[in-house]
Write a structure and sequence with these properties.
Elements lengths: L11 E3 L2 E2 L15 H9 L14 E2 L3 H6 L21 E4 L12 H12 L8 E6 L2 H13 L8 E6 L6 H7 L10 E4 L17 E5 L9 E2 H14 L2 E6 L4 E3 L2 E2 L29 H4 L4 H10 L20 H12 L2
Parallel strand pairs: 1-4, 4-5, 5-6, 6-7, 7-8, 8-10, 9-11
Antiparallel strand pairs: 2-3, 11-12
Helix pairs in contact: 4-5
The chain binds iron/sulfur cluster.
């Protein structure tokens, strides 16, 4: 279990499940998944890991411990200023895939959904990333059959590495409901990907090149194209890293950081690390267009506003005046 991470788009990571059924980064042809490599080194000796990466193992109680971590709403981050003011952002499942086949839905409900919905858990945002959004969609439907709502502070995300992984994005759109915040992790991107009309249906796009052994090139033209498509679609865009082999205009870009994660060394136009504004203005987000939210954020003054805990606003009996008053109250305007 980790309480802090160098991953730029979150504050911490947590793993209620360790190990994974594999993907394009961990199969017979390629073994570059860092979670798989770490398991190969530590799995048999460290009790905090699955015995082997393929022997997926549950670790109940980790999420509950994480829910007690301090409240970061309204706080500054010295090392990640782009997260200033946001609730604590916790990446769920960076050392495996909790949607691996052996993990029952009952466990996922109890360990993830129920914990995120508690008073303590609702102070944070849980970024649940999977390469199995189809199973996540089934899980979401299973919850709905039991009258359990997908919590607003659990953001489902999926990984896109190449054109062939685009169906994952379509499956993810069926997780949760109309109020669910969804994100795409386009990392490691290994080829040009055309998202078409899919992109504006997401709230956040994180992009990055490949690092580690056997890294494949990352063309900065892909970053510029995705950045621009996100701007057009009103989607928050976050460039995480350029990877170990960035190419700019066909030439290798030499960077000291082997992950290409130090944005001070990047071309100026690519230093973009946005987060969805709904994270700072959750009630406004229920009504407003993304561009409106962006303007609200730009107009905000110091100190960074402290957003409320994540709850579903009850809109049933509210008049328009009530709603506007609530929005103004929450934004401090
Ligand atoms: S799904 Fe994630 S954890 Fe599993 S092998 Fe692929 S990259 Fe690694």
């Amino acid at each position: 279990m980790a309480e802090s991470t160098k991953i730029q788009w979150c504050d911490d990571t947590i793993n209620p499940v360790m190990g994974c059924d594999g993907c394009e980064l961990w199969d017979d042809a390629r073994r570059t998944c860092y979670a798989g490599l770490l398991h190969a080194m530590r799995g048999r000796t460290n009790k905090g890991f699955a015995p082997t990466f393929e022997q997926v193992k549950e670790f109940p109680g980790r999420m509950a411990k994480a829910s007690r971590w301090s409240d970061l709403r309204g706080q500054r981050r010295l090392d990640k200023p782009w997260l200033d003011g946001a609730p604590r952002l916790i990446f769920v499942s960076d050392m495996g895939d909790a949607l691996s086949a052996a993990i029952p839905f009952e466990y996922l409900k109890q360990e993830i959904i129920d914990v995120a919905s508690t008073t303590l858990g609702s102070r944070h945002v849980w970024l649940w990333l999977t390469k199995r959004p189809l199973r996540m969609k089934e899980f979401s439907g299973w919850l709905a059959e039991r009258c359990v709502e997908w919590p607003a502070n659990v953001w489902p995300g999926t990984s896109i590495t190449a054109e062939t992984s685009l169906p994952r994005a379509r499956s993810l759109l069926k997780v949760g409901d109309d109020t669910t915040t969804r994100f795409l992790s386009v990392e490691p991107q290994v080829e040009r990907v055309e998202f078409g009309d899919l992109l504006p249906r997401f709230d956040w796009v994180i992009q990055g090149g490949e690092s580690g052994g056997k890294s494949r090139p990352f063309d900065l033209a892909w970053a510029r194209a995705l950045r621009d498509r996100c701007r057009e679609g009103g989607v928050a865009y976050f460039l995480k890293q350029l990877g170990a082999r960035p190419l700019d205009g066909g030439r290798a870009l030499k960077l000291k950081d082997r992950h290409g994660g130090d944005w001070t060394a990047w071309p100026d136009d690519l230093r973009v690390r946005e987060i969805p504004e709904s994270i700072r203005f959750p009630v406004v987000a229920a009504f407003a267009e993304p561009r409106v939210l962006r303007r609200l954020h730009l107009a905000s003054t110091e100190p960074v506003p402290r957003p409320p805990a994540f709850t579903r606003p009850d809109l049933s009996a509210a008049s328009t005046d009530d709603l506007l008053a609530e929005i103004r109250r929450r934004c401090g305007t």
